[in-house]
Amino acid sequence: MSNTAGALSRTLGKFLRRSVGIVLSILAGVFVGSLIMIWYKQNPVEIYGQLLKGAYGSQRSLFIGLQRATPLIFTALASTLAFRTGVFNVGVEGQFFIGAIAGTYVGYAFQMPAIIHLPLTLLTGFVAGAAWAFVPTLMRQKLGVSEIVTTIMTNYIATFLISYLTNYPMRADPTTPDTPPIMPTARLPQFIEMTRESANPLGKGTQAHLGILVAVAVVAVMYFIFKRTKIGFEWRMVGISFPFSEFAGMNLDRTFISGMLVSGGLAGLGGSVEIMGVWREYKNLFATGFGFKGNLAALLGGQSILGSTVAALFYGSMEAGALGLEWSAGIPRQLIDIVVGLIIFFMAAEGMWDFVKRIKWARAPEEERRTTQELEA
Amino acid sequence: MTLAVEMKGIRKVFPGVVANDSVDFAVQEGEIHALVGENGAGKTTLMNVLFGLYFAEAGSIQIRGQPVHIRKNADAIALGIGMVHQSFKLVPSFTVAENITLGAEPRKGIFVDREAVRDSVLEISERFGLKVDPEARVMDLPVGVQQRVEILKALYREADVLILDEPTAVLTPQETDEFFGVVRSLVAGGKTVIFITHKLREVLEISDRVTVMRDGAVVGTKDTKDTDVAELARMMVGREVLLRVEKRNAELGEIVLRVDNLRVRDDRHQIAVRGVSLEVRAGEILGVAGVMGNGQRELVEAIVGLRPAVGGTIYVSGKEITPLSVRERRESGMSCIPEDRYVRGLALPATIQDNLVACSYYKAPMSKGPLLELDTIASSAETAIKTFDVRTTGKDVPAFTLSGGNLQKVVIARELSSDPNLLIAAQPTRGLDIGSIEFVLQRIIDARDGGTAVLLVSAELDEVMSLSDRIVVLYEGKIVGTIDGAHATEQGLGLWMAGISDEDVEEEAKEAAHV
């Protein structure tokens, strides 16, 4: 009984410590951001007020935040999975767009009922992202090339490949390099599309769509896999320690390959969801940075599945707020990017402090490592 | 008699741990003072305070009667204190002379005066009878000589008080004897030596006085001539200690492990195991003795499957396992207590439960299909914690919160829970306190009595001798001798460990007879 209480208070304590760290980092980021704003002769109080209003001030801003957060949840999960399994997937960005273009193709090239078309398009995105991640995986397994280098490079290859595809084989419009629109059966409905006729239309003036439900489902599945399945256990252990996992008899090749493929698959799934919900056709380079923002959200969320989901939602609403700021006050949204960047910087600095303590601890002589627990016992 | 060092009321706290609590420690000028205690007793912390690596929260230090403030390492060195750490701090690619003078080189303008460097090194090395070749590269030197370089480094910085932290841990018995000669010549040259160790026989052999620490406090200081091993052990542990492990005669069964002409490369691709053949039967402990670094690590890793063999075959219960993966080998009944429990043996940030289940999570009853059976895993973890007396607040705390002894218990609980046919135990008691050592050794004997074949690889000669039914000695990757546990003597094994085989001895005897 006291044991359970102890475990509970420890978990709570850990959560509190972590929260304090996050809050302090946010405050530090906000503070340094204010200095920059003052430097530019802006009133920080007003700007932050506008930012919060733009992020959380109305139903519309909440839905914009949701729409912005949806792709980030996928890329944040992809990054988190890679971090946690000890894989360096710096190719989330490329995998996202490959998933998007593959989803687009399946979305416009086939005619079939929505009940098949929707899942097929989603699946295509996942498979395409995984396939794109398979190239670096193969190079690492067969040739011993570091996946850090190859996943970065495949981002560029993805960009140029898609540029070619949208300019030539998949081009629909003679004036702009866009693909044909995807079939209605492959579209994830937007909230406004579903509720336009009703008395209370949801998400008016936004493109927030049901992809958020797909994202939530994926979060739940990933959480379950990590906590409850054998492969999840293997991923966790390999992510914590290669030498230990090898010694315990785990197959490091298998966890590496599966971790990389699922990470790439999640990114690709995010790409197809973004097409199916928001864009409905592939406009060449409709936006960029999903992979990198996802990466940041994963860091912000402490590389836990739930944490990075929350961080992605936060990041999405901050983007919504920045958008509002740009419209209403003419403040460049890059200013907000700076603040978010600062917050992450301070969080990373805090993480670094932990890391330093850990290293010091690991290097300390045995007698220093004993804990109160042991002494109490 | 003047006191070279007097520390009073030293208190040093690490987060959550009081490593030193009002410790008084005094060393007379010109003596060899042994500082003993179990691992974790606070010996090294106390000496790190003296050497300026830690700053104590409370307490005062006097050097030769003068109160001093040692705030940093350089202060201690300026006061004539030198320390030789357990793990040497040398630059392998530099020469002996370069290492000794590093950071305090004689200069000629902006250049290092190489001749002056060599001369001054030769001068001290002659003065104290510590023979070294100033031009040799440190990486080419045996451990014993590297240690000499470390001592010279301290002497070059004009240390009067030399702290030696577990200096004999890396030496053969013969090297130890030689090393004791060096220590005596230091004292004869007017130096004071503080000798940290947990080997009580060395204390009796070399020291003038001895201070015993336990749980961060000093238990007492004795004149060495007035005490004995039993008393010191009692002071260290706080109770009577079993110095010899009780075990009954071996009941030998089938051959479980057979290694045939095994050849293995080390990390630098040098052949480290050169044609080792051995057999271990069920119910038998085969001890592999030898100075660390003579192929033990590679031998164990090759048997467990972490390192490929470049030649030879390994059989477990008659089945060849050479091409099999680690898991397949474990499936054939092999378990292993690895040499490095912090790297191989445990995932420190993971929970105790995860560490306990890491070798069995994939099969019934711990899982069913792709899903883990979390309830079964939890209850088996709780049972293991109870059975193996792991001192922890719960199964869900990260492993790194445990002490060394309790961590090893986690490893042993996991590795013995599969009821193995074959147990490879590599340095199973390294870095543990006496209480934990006893526990670990008893578990190994229990496994053997239960019919497990045990391959015990250890650098602790005592351990090998008291546990093994048979002993082989590994030297430079080869087995230089085999003997029954009952007939083994420290001298005999020591000769083998130094690479002197029986044939050499016989030849020498013959030569002597001819002359």
Q: Which characteristics define this entry?
A:
heterodimer; A: 377 residues; mainly alpha; B: 515 residues; alpha/beta; Rossmann fold; 3 domains; six-stranded mixed beta sheet; 18 helices; 24 strands; globular
Describe this structure as you would to a colleague.
The complex is a heterodimer of chains A (377) and B (515). Chain A is mainly alpha-helical and 377 residues long. Chain A has 16 helices and no strands. Chain A has a domain at 65-288. The longest helix of chain A is centred in the first third of the chain and has 38 residues, at 2-39. Chain B is α/β, with parallel strands linked by helices and 515 residues long. Helix content of chain B is 34%, strand content 27%. Chain B contains 18 helices and 24 strands. In chain B, helix 14 (404-416) packs parallel to helix 15.
At a glance:
The complex is a heterodimer of chains A (377) and B (515). Chain A has 377 residues and is mainly alpha-helical.
Low-pLDDT stretches of chain A are: 361-377
| End-to-end CA span of chain B | 52 Å
- Give the H and E element order of chain A: HHHHHHHHHHHHHHHH
CATH hierarchy, class of the largest domain in chain B: Alpha Beta
Radius of gyration of chain B (CA) equals 25 Å
Structural domain count of chain B:
3
Give the terminus-to-terminus CA distance of chain A.
17 Å
Q: Tell me, what's the shape of chain B? A: globular
Strand count of chain B: 24
Assess the beta-strand content of chain B as a share of residues. Answer: 25-35%
Shape of chain A: globular
